[in-house]
Design brief:
The chain has one domain. The two termini are 14 Å apart. The protein contains two helices and no strands. Helix content is 93%, strand content 0%. With 129 residues, the chain is mainly α. Helix 1 packs antiparallel against helix 2. It is rod-shaped.
C-alpha cells in the first residue's frame, strides 16, 4: 500500500505542476492578446493621425509638402500593417502552442489517472484476493 500512496502523491503533484503550467500558458496568452489589442489601438491612432495630416496638408500646404506628407503616410501605413501582421502571427503561434500543450496535458493526465487506477486495483487486497 505505501507504494500506491507514493504513486498517488506523485500523480497529484504532477497534476498540480501541469495545472500551474497551463495557467501560466493561459496568462501568457492573455498578455499576448492584450499586447495585440494595444498594437491595434496604436495602429488605429496612427491611421487617424495620418488622415488628419493629409487633411491639414491638403488644406494649407504646398504641393511639395503634400507629397512629403503623403510619403510619410504611406511609410507609416506600411509599418503599421507589418507590425500588426507580425503581432498576429506571434499571437497565432502562441495560441497554437497553448492549444497543443493543453491537449497533451489532458491526454497525459488521463493516461496517468488510468495507470493510477490500475496500480491501486492491483495493489489493493480487497479487489484481488
Amino acid at each position: 500500500m505505501p507504494v500506491v500512496i507514493v504513486v498517488l502523491i506523485a500523480v497529484v503533484v504532477i497534476m498540480l505542476v501541469v495545472g500551474a503550467v497551463v495557467v501560466i500558458m493561459l496568462v501568457v496568452g492573455a498578455v499576448i492578446v492584450v499586447i495585440m489589442l494595444v498594437v491595434l489601438a496604436v495602429a488605429v491612432v496612427i491611421v487617424v493621425v495620418d488622415v488628419l495630416l493629409v487633411v491639414i496638408a491638403v488644406v494649407s500646404l504646398t504641393a511639395i509638402m503634400i507629397a512629403f506628407v503623403m510619403a510619410l503616410v504611406v511609410i507609416a501605413a506600411i509599418v503599421v500593417v507589418t507590425v500588426v501582421l507580425i503581432a498576429a502571427v506571434v499571437s497565432g503561434v502562441a495560441a497554437a502552442v497553448i492549444l497543443v500543450v493543453f491537449v497533451v496535458v489532458v491526454f497525459v493526465d488521463t493516461f496517468v489517472a488510468i495507470i493510477v487506477v490500475v496500480v491501486v486495483a492491483r495493489n489493493s487486497k480487497a479487489t484481488f484476493d
